[in-house]
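Trying the structure run again after the queue cleared.
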Amino acid sequence: MGKLISLIVLTLALAGPAIADSLNWRIRSEHPNVVSLEFYSQDYSRAWPGDGEVYILDDYDTHSYNLECRSGEKICYGAWVRGDSDSYWGVGRNDASGCSDCCYTCGQGDTDLRILNN
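Done. Tokens:
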């Protein structure tokens, strides 16, 4: 019985908890229309803010979004003009499009300022 408990403890110790980290995004919209914004994990089935909600960009200020994520998790942003998901940046609405430079890795520093414009 003692060996079994030791084996279980060792297995749990090796598995360990997922390492929590964060990724801070800075985004500014210079588009004349209201823009919706969401962040999508490429490694897990989740998005920020999640639950069918989006962040709203309706001014020309720089906004910061600090996402709690798992170290090493790849996260991409998707933004689109409200009411016109064909006008988008990053991966677009619902992570539907590819991108060459819209993803960052959690735990590897904050993002550069992203400016959304025409």
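The CA atoms of residues 81 and 106 lie 26 Å apart. Worth checking whether this holds up in the mutant runs.
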